[in-house]
Every structure is written in structure tokens, then in C-alpha cells.
Fold:
Amino acid sequence: MDWSTVFSLSTLTNTINTATIVILAGLGCLMTDQAGMMNIGIDGMMTFGAFAAVIGSWACASWEMGLLFALAVGLVLGAFYGLFVIRFKSDEFIIGVALNIFAAAMTTFMLRSIPGQKGSFHPATGAVIKLPTITIAGMNFSMMVPLSWLLVLLAWIMIYRTPLGFWLHASGEHPDSLRSVGRSPEKMKYLASLMCGALCGLSGAYLSLGYLSTFTENMSASRGYVAVACVIFGRSNPPLVFLAALLFGFIDAAGQRMQGVVDPYLTAALPYVGTILMMVILALRQTRRKKAH
Amino acid sequence: MQFPDALANDDVSLDIHRGEIFALVGENGAGKSTLMNILYGMCTPTGGEVIVKGKRVQRFSPADAIAAGIGMVHQHFMLVPSFTVAQNIVLNDEPRRHGLFYDFRAANATVERLVAEYGLRVNAEDKVQDISVGLQQRVEILKTLHRGADVLILDEPTAVLTPQETDELFDVIRRIVREKQMTVIIITHKLYEVMAISDRVGVMRAGKLVGVCETKDVNERILASMMVGKEVLLDALERIDDHDATPAIEVRDLHVADNRGLPAVRGLSLKVERGEILGIAGIEGNGQSELIEAITGMRPVDSGKVFIQGQDVTGKNPRQIRAAGLAHVPEDRLSTGVSAQASITENLLVGKEKDARFSIGKFHMKKQAVHAYAQEVFDRFDIRAASVDKAVGSLSGGNMQKVVVAREFSFDTPVLIISQPTRGVDIGAMDFIHKQIMDKRNQSCAILLVSADLDELYRLSDRMVTVYEGQITGEFIPSQIEKTELSYYMTGGRKEDANEKR
Structure:
């Protein structure tokens, strides 16, 4: 096979485009992780976000409204997650799984409720307006790509350089320490849930209005789980999560390039195999560190 | 203040004066921490009022307590381990640049100023997870001082400290009281600390404040007898003397560490013969729990030997030790005594499930036999519940304890280890359990009994030993020693030097 096609310019843009989905969702997931909640429901939040973005964009014939719809749905889901995990003290994994199953089923149901739509969204009238693009170094990117980079920077500043970020982290690591100085850890956890919802909404909007230009059933393709893995791999540190997501994006893009040579089902599995390998490496490193202690 | 079922503080009235060191003492569960948590706003009282500096407290929250100048150093530190010392001290009161960013330099400067002012040396940039427990406590104290506290509550501050760290802490307390006119309330159950540091002392027992005294007017023995208190009048139990001089339990020079790895049992030796009850008296936290756990195989032994029925069981696991002829009523029925979600039947069956009476092979239980057995024990031990199928967790403390006692006693072992058999149990159930214990003794069991209740020890024991800081301080015959004298040995007095001190 020709390795030059694997390491080409279009592989670079593909890497960045695919990674952006995971970066945005990963930022959301790391917010809740900082606050002591491992939200594996981000996959469902993305799916809902993607659906809401397409509907908003098509119904109002504007990408702005698509984005707004996705954000609103994300916030509602974030509040829902917070309500169950923080207020009702439900198991965070169960709620996450429930959210994912619910999202897959509900978006499929709603899609099929629109006349003539099955599998993916193809409206008879009107059109889905995509997010605007920006040219960086001669390459065309969705506006969400540079925005995600900015958000990585902002998230890092917030968590490591502002009191708000400290409270967020304290609410996860030692909630009573925050309570005893007179600040509610529950409020910080709600804030984290809402930020997570909003970021997953953005991730979904990018998925359906930037990466592609339609909604298809189960279109998140479990990238939410990959984002969770990236958050664990990057120890909830935004720049590290960003790098992990880029690695995932590269494996995905390289896999697409190799489709002509290798069995396409095998290449489609590559990113997920890569994710598992990442987790194994991480686990090995941690056990080695524990032994060293 | 009430917990769902229990009154943690019952009609307590207490005045604390500005600029004094006030000690609050009492057994575990006497209500000291609850009282202080109310003062700090972590609990809301169900009745009564709290007045701080002449103002009635309207809202109970830590934020309001901080605003009123009250600071609390909790038993379990309220520090974020991955944050630096400075980050922890200024938490929720962070200095900022441009109104948004945390100001690292200003925070460190704040800590250095506090260190200079109060003489409590800490390094602002160390991470809390990397420093010693003693230093972490300093960080906690600095945290409250930074918030302008002039009333400082310390909840069991010395429980986690080495003796040297304790001395340093006391120096700090004396200095801030003298130089800064602070008021300090210290919760403890170590009486020598009360004598060493406090101006006045309040004693709590079972949720009530039983006395407040000037420290100079009392001594450790008076305080100890106030702490254990109450006489309960119950009929004497029938005692058949059929003593057999073969030791059934023997502990030789045992050393055991506590959960923190510090020595809890330090060179303890004892023997229990068949047909006698040996009672262990001591203030809680003096190694009794660790001793029992080591004998029953639930905690590793550092050095020394344990023999059950002449068999060396040191370092064996609980199943092997039980096979040597031991049954064990553990001190905490909820965490180790029962499975709360399981039924009474299931709890009674544990340990007998492999018995040929109840099962065939590994996969078949004889349901009827199990049920009949459970019903018989249920009736004999007078367990009050709707049926044997009820979950044990739904029973009252007394009935739950009866389930534990019934199960352990029905193993018919020659050796019984019994810890706190009637804690939180009503008097009827207590009397019943006492009679069961005495029956076992009369059937020539060797019984080792640990209890925080002196009346119980007096009523049941043939011999008593007092323990203090993991060592035996004296051995007594119950009828030959007064409780007040016994409490002297429980607080560190030794039999050898008792005569000169008196």
C-alpha cells in the first residue's frame, strides 16, 4: 500500500475534523469529571444535540438557530443529568447509560415522525444550513474547529487559574471542604452538568452541521465513549484531552485512507481499537506507578 | 438535635466564655460532635437556641458561623488533597487579579503573613497530599484564622497526632488564646489532655451534659466516673462455680497496629480459663477493638501469639480461628455483625450453611429444616419481629443484637469473644443478653468480654483488667474495687504506682 496517501494533507484535515467532535464532547465530560461525576451519557447528549441542530437549522433556515437549538437541548439534558445524579443521588453510570439509550431511541422516533424520513434527514422542502467555514493555512474548516481550540484554552484557564475552577474541582475531590467554607458543592456540580450539556450540544451541532450536513440515526457512532476515554487518558486536563482526541482523530482518518487496501470494516474498527489500547497503556502506567510507591 | 431515631443532644445548655479553653469530654456517641456541629452550622437543632456574642443565631449554616467568627477544625480534615496549602487556606475567599483570575502571589503572601503572625510554620506551595497529618491540621487552623475566627472548635484534634505533634498543638493553642484573646473549644475523650490544656471542662453522656467544672477543681478519676456514670439496678445473676484451670484463650505479648499503622496494642498478655468471664475495661480507643480483631483474625498481628484451646492461631484467617473453637459477637453489629438486607433466617444460618442438617452438597438447601431451625432460635431468643423472613435491618437495635448473639452462641464453641454486647440496647434486651452470657459461662465456656459499660462489666465479669493505650494497667476482682478507683486505672494510672499517688 502507498503510505504517502495515509500521511497526506487531507489526512491532516480529516484528523482535525474528526477530533473536533471528540474535543468538544471531551471538554463537556471533563467538566463533570472535575466535579466528581463521570458522565458517560455524553454520547446521548451529542446525539440529541445533532438532531436539534438539524431541525433548528432547517426549520428556521439559519445555522444560528440550529446552534441555539443544540445548546438549549444540551442545557436541558445537563439539568436532567444533574437533577438525577446530584439531587436524587442516582448512580451516575446508570443515568449515563439510560441517557444514551434514550437518545438513540428518541431521536430515531422523532426522525421517523417527520413524514418521509427514515435513516437520515432529507427534507422535501427547504434545506439544512451548515455552519460557516473558515480558511486556515489554506485549509477549509468549520467555524467550530477553531472555536473548539479556543474552548480548550478557556477551559484550561478556568480550571487551573480561576477560583471558579478551584471550586469546581473541590466539589469533586472533597465536597465537604467546600461546604465547610460556606459554598455549596451541589451548585458547582449543577454548573458542571450544565456546561457539559452545552458543550455536548455544540459537539452534536458540529457533527450534523459541520462534519456532515444531515442527521442520521445513531450518528454519534459511540464517539461519546471515545471522548470519555480521552478524558480519562488526559486526566481531565483540557490540553491533554485535546491531544488524546487528536490521536483518536488521526487513527480514524488514517483508517479511512487505508480503506482501499484493507477491509473497510476492519479500518472502521481502528479508532475503537486505538481507544482500548490507550486505556490499556494508561492502566499499565498507573499500576507501575503504584508499585513504585 | 435529633437523628432519625435517636436524640443526639438532649436538652443541653452550655455557656462558653470569651478567652477560655473549654474542653468537652465524653464517650464515643455521647453527642459532643453533634453539639459542636450545631454551633458550626453543619446540623440544625430541632429545638432550643444558640447565642453567639449576644446575638441569637437565626440561620444554621457554615457560612453564617464563619461570619460570626466561629471556625471549626473537623476530625476529618476539610482539605482538598491535590490543592496547595495556600489554595486550601484561601478556598472560597481567593485573592484575584482582574476580578477573575486566582492571584497565586497574593495567596502565598497571605499565608506567609498568617504564618508570621501566629507562628504556625507551613509552606504555602506544598500540596496538602504531600504533607504530614500534623501539618495538615495546622493548615486547617490557619484556614479558620484566615477567615477571622476568634472562636476555634477543635474536634478530637489529637486523635491523629503523634505525642510530639500534640505538644506542639497545645503550645499553639495556649499562644493564640494568650496573645490573640481567642476562645478555644476542644473535643476529646483523653482526660489527661483535658487536665493539660483546659480552663473549664464539660462532660457529656448519652446526649446530656452531666456536668461543667473548673478544670483545677477536678481530676481524671472524677471526670472518668462522670463519663461512665449511671447505676442500673438489675438482679444479680446466678453463678455456678465449676472452674477449670485450663486456659482456653491465651494472648502472649501481642502487638497490633491500628488503621493508621500506629501501635494500638502494645505488648498485651492475658489468659481466660474455662468457666470464667474476663472483662476488659477501658476508655474507647485504647486498643480494645484492635485486640479483639487480632484475636479473631480480622487484623494482622505484628508480633506475639494467640492461642485458642491450646492451638496457635496467630495469623490464621477468621474461618480457621473459628474452627479452633471460637465464636465472636463483634462490637459493631451493623457493619460486621449482620447483613442488614438479608432476612433473620439467612442471618441465623450464616456459618452453618454447609452443615448436613441444612444442605445437601453445594447447591441444595433444605428449606424446611432451615426454616424450622430459624423459627426455633427466633422463639428461644425472644426476637421481636413479624416473622423470621423480615430483613434484619428493619429490626430495632436490641433485636438485631439478639440475632447476632443467637447465631454466635448457637455454634456451641468453648470460647466466646464478646464486644459491646448491649450497646444501644434497651434494658429488657440487655438483661436477656446478660443471662445468655452467664448461662454460657456456667456451661464452662471461656468468655472474653469488652464493654464500655462499667455496670455490665461489674455484673458479668469474674475478673477484670483495665487497658490504657494498648497495655494492661491492672487486674481486679469486681467485688473488691470501686468504680471510681477503676476509672483511675482506665485513664493511665498503674497498679504499681497507685499507692503513692493516692
Observations:
- Residues 1-6, 498-502 of chain B have pLDDT under 50 and may be disordered.
- The two ends of chain B are 41 Å apart (CA to CA).
